[in-house]
Amino acid sequence: MKKVLLTGASGFFASRFYTYYKNKYEILPLSHRDLDITDERRCLEIIQSFKPDYVIHTAAIADTGLCERNPELSFEINVKGSINIAKACSLAKSKLIYLSSEQIFNGNFEKGPYNENHIPRPNTVYGNHKLQAEDELKGIIEELWILRFSWLFGFPEKNCRVSSNILWNVVSSVLKDKRIKLPVNEFRGMTYVYDIIENFHKILEIPYGTYHTGSENDLSTYDIALFILKELGLDHNADNYLEKDTDRYNEHPRDLRISNNKLKKYGIALPETIGGIKNCLSDFNY
């Protein structure tokens, strides 16, 4: 049985990954309480002691607002912490899977979808630090997969963290009978978390490199929310739950869409966002 060390184990993706694969791999799930990734010595000790075949590094500060307010903390965790993990992996001869983000493209002015050859131009602290970490890790370890995720979505589950995401935000607005305001000028991939998790073992078999790992999508954030209501049979009451935000990104539409054509070449095809929403609603009997 292959051994997997999982950082950020209490996070949205990692908590579900652990539950899904705990009988396939011997997994050591480490939350921040178990491992402070800014402690280089401790990273070396734990990884060398466990000797994992794979380290899936998900630990990060993904709150973009917090990163803007505290760039030093963002650098410590998102860059230096990732460097510490990579160094430890190199010494322990462990393969590293680093979860990066579509956010590295949030300053690009050309339209997406972006492939792996597009030059990222991040304009936030978080985006800059994720890209910096990518570059740093490439110089430390060759046995490296960089997976650029898009916005993940899913429902709350027992023993799993739920983060703000398009599907749960819309369903919550219905349950609370409140309206949410969503931009019509934002376009980004949104990915059902289990569409990635179910394919993750395949990713470990493809060549090392950088991959865009998210659902493709041509609809605005508002239109995706409208589609969710339609699937729930509530589109006739859309105005009760949704409000168009026409001001945000009006001067320059926000386009974070990514192309996963490179991943498809290796037989890994993720559903488009619409398909992912249907999969999720079906899985949870909505």
- N-to-C CA distance: 36 Å
Mean pLDDT metric: 96
Look at the helices and sheets and give the structural class. alpha/beta
Q: Which strands sit side by side, in order, in the main sheet? A: 2-1-3-4-5-10
- Using the coordinates above, name the CATH class of one domain: Alpha Beta
Rounded to the nearest angstrom, the radius of gyration is: 19 Å
Question: What is the helix tally?
Answer: 12
General description of the model:
- The strands form four sheets. This protein has a six-stranded parallel beta sheet with strand order 2-1-3-4-5-10, with helices on both faces.
- It has 286 residues and is of the alpha/beta class.
- It has a domain of 194 residues: NAD(P)-binding Rossmann-like Domain (Rossmann fold).
- The mean pLDDT is 96.
- It is 39% helix and 17% strand.
- The longest helix is centred in the N-terminal third of the chain and has 22 residues.
Describe how the helices and strands are arranged.
Elements: E1 3-7, H1 12-21, E2 26-30, H2 40-50, E3 54-57, H3 64-69, H4 71-92, E4 95-101, H5 125-138, E5 144-149, E6 151-153, H6 166-175, E7 180-183, E8 186-187, E9 190-192, H7 193-197, H8 200-203, E10 209-213, H9 221-231, H10 238-241, E11 242-245, E12 254-255, H11 261-264, H12 273-283
Parallel strand pairs: 1-2, 1-3, 3-4, 4-5, 5-10, 6-9, 7-11, 8-12
Helix pairs in contact: 2-4, 4-5, 6-9, 9-12
